[in-house]
Amino acid sequence: MTIDNDSSGAATDAAGAAFGALPVRPGKIIAVHISYASRADQRGRRPAAPSYFFKASSSLAESGGVIERPAGTELLAFEGEIALVIGAPVRRVALEDAWDHVAWVTASDDLGLYDLRANDKGSNVRSKGGDGFTPIGPQLIDARAVDPAALRVRTWVNGELRQDDTTAGLIFPLAQFVADLSQHFTLETGDVILTGTPAGSSVIVPGDVVEVEVDDPSSGATSGRLVTTVVDGPALAFDAEVGSLPSVDDTQREEAWGSREAAGLPAASDPSTGSGTDAGTGSGGKEPVAEPVEASSRAPLPAALRDKLARVPVAGLSQQLRKRGLNNVTIDGVRPLHPERTLVGVATTLRFVPGREDLFASHGGGYNAQKRAFDAVGEGEIIVIEARGETGSGTLGDILAIRAHARGAAGIVTDGGVRDADAVTAVGIPVYTAGAHPAVLGRKHVPWDVDVTIACGGTTVQPGDILVGDADGVIVIPPGLAEEVADAALAQEEEDAWIAARVAEGHAVDGLFPMNAVWRARYEESRG
Predict the structure, then answer these.
(1) Are 424 and 437 a contacting pair, CB within 8 Å?
(2) Is residue 201 within 8 Å of residue 278, measured between CB atoms?
(3) Cβ neighbours of residue 102 under 8 Å, at least 6 residues apart?
(4) 129 near 162, Cβ under 8 Å?
(5) Residues 197, 214: Cα–Cα separation, whole Å
(6) What is the CATH superfamily name and number for domain 5-233?
(7) What is the DSSP-derived secondary structure letter of residue 115?
(8) Angle, nearest 10°, between helix axes 482-504 and 517-526?
(9) Residues 288-316: what's their mean pLDDT?
């Protein structure tokens, strides 16, 4: 049976603003993974039985609201769906009686942030459970007045129709969800079942307006259009010690956008450069994009060596490299945003070429070299950017800094500018830059290639070189010399500390710095 729509009027007035169009706050929101044949065909798999996940009731939102896309994420996707609202408690109901326990149907948008699926894909707790991630409404349709096999769901983005399907395209009838779930637990009054989305779900970006409508074409009954606007949100305020940081790969991009082509990725069977949508802007324009870069396969810096290098001032390392005939190993003209932090890591490189309009049109959009570099940086690696010392445009901003931080990068070094300098500093990752500049990339630079030998701050940097930075600057160490140089620099630091103590005692510098034979003998004796 269903409850009388009229009996819920007071509850709707009192709680409608908090819970969308619903009369009460639902105890459970249960969502179906894949239910439409069109979606199953798009994903390349058709389930033999329904599967489900839960969403928090705190994720509910009303029509006309906003959804925040956190800074540093890229794959927020809409899913227009038909929502069923349970009218009376039901347990172990037969399929033929299940629809009698549905009081209303309405529109919903099962929003999801694919950047957060990595550690709980399937349960979708982080990716779909956030505040505002379940807009619902704006009006309820009496379930007794419609044919559950002839309902329609449509979704528009910025006025363009993106989804259009009916329940005739379902793999499982709506009533089956009620019957199936009731075998395992009691469905209570006000519980909501989100019944899955058809093909057409894709990525949305700040500024986009999503509208979802459920209707019965034969009777004209409609939910009205459920409207949600995407806005920029703050970065997720935690680190890897607290929870799961955003992480995306090409599989997540393909599933979020709906296809490799829409995501701006090469065809799966064609590893060469292809054409696709600009995944960074959601503009839908076709541009050439380069082959995605896989995560680095370089061996990480050994922990013992990293510890040694972190304890040696850059000035000491410079001294030891000079003794070995290497003078041009400092990255000049860059200063740290965190002078109190030590930078140690292995270089991965990104090269910009001078801005040229035709080249930026072909290489600046889509999944360009800049995006690939920040998506592929490995743990303990430093992204080193060649910008030719041109500071009249930013070479990264806070979103890319967040991405590098989330990937476990050790830092970023650019001989160009940084946009959103205060926000980049707040991310906490060590960054060295030639200065701040508000302009976007296309003003002076074209992102060209990654993991090639580059020139940064007047010195050559190769992928795999070891970089160390402190308040004095950044130095480049050939990997084969790193252990030797680190040991020699530590020994020199110990010697210099002993000399400094003697000077503080009042001894003259002459003969002590550098040490003559007499002082050398005293030093060796002090060491036992």
Answers:
(1) no
(2) no
(3) 2, 84, 85, 86, 87, 143, 148, 174, 175, 178
(4) no
(5) 12
(6) Fumarylacetoacetase-like, C-terminal domain (3.90.850.10)
(7) G
(8) 100
(9) 71
**Secondary structure (DSSP) of 147-170:** -TTS-EEEEEETTEEEEEEEGGGB
Yes or no: say if 467 and 318 are a contact pair by the CB < 8 Å rule: no
Q: Which amino acid is at 35?
A: S
pTM of the model: 0.53
Helix axes 398-406, 369-376, angle to 10 degrees: 30
Beta carbons of 149 and 168 less than 8 angstroms apart: yes
DSSP 16-61: TTTSTT-SS--S-EEEES--BHHHHHHHT---SS--EEEE-GGGEE
The b-or-e profile of 104-139 (16+ CB within 10 A means b, else e) is: bbbbbbbbbbbbbbbeeeeebbbbbbbebbbbbbbb
What are the residues whose beta carbons fall under 8 Å from the beta carbon of 11, sequence distance 6 or more?
23, 24
Which H, E and C letters describe 465-505, residue by residue?
CEEEEECCEEEEECHHHHHHHHHHHHHHHHHHHHHHHHHHC
- C-beta separation of 470 from 342 below 8 A: yes
From 192, 199, 155, select the one nearest 177 (Cα to Cα).
192
Q: Which residues pair with 80 in a beta bridge?
A: 109
Cα–Cα separations (whole angstroms), residue 291 to 281, 351, 451: 18, 16, 13
**What are 45-67's pLDDT values in tens digits?**
888 899 999 999 999 999 999 99
Task: Give me the residue spans of the domains in the chain.
Answer: 5-233, 259-289, 303-481, 484-526
Fold adopted by 303-481: Glucose Oxidase; domain 1 (3.50.30)
Cα dist from 364 to 145, 294, 359, 444, whole Å: 53, 20, 7, 11
Task: Work out the end-to-end distance of the chain between its first and last CA atoms, rounded to an integer number of angstroms.
Answer: 92
d(CA 514, CA 510): 8
Give the position of tokens 């419609």.
146
Check if the beta carbon of residue 25 is closer than 8 Å to that of residue 19: yes
As a three-state string, the secondary structure of 370-422 is: HHHHHHHCCCCEEEEEECCCCCCCECCCHHHHHHHHHCCCCEEEECCEECCHH
Q: For 308-365, how does the pLDDT look when each residue is reduced to its tens digit (9 = 90+)? A: 999 989 999 999 999 999 999 999 999 999 999 899 999 999 999 999 988 888 888 7
Helical spans, DSSP H, in 229-302: 250-257
Task: State how far the Cα of 35 lies from the Cα of 21, in Å rounded to an integer.
Answer: 24
* Side chain identity, residue 86: I
Mean pLDDT of 69-94: 94
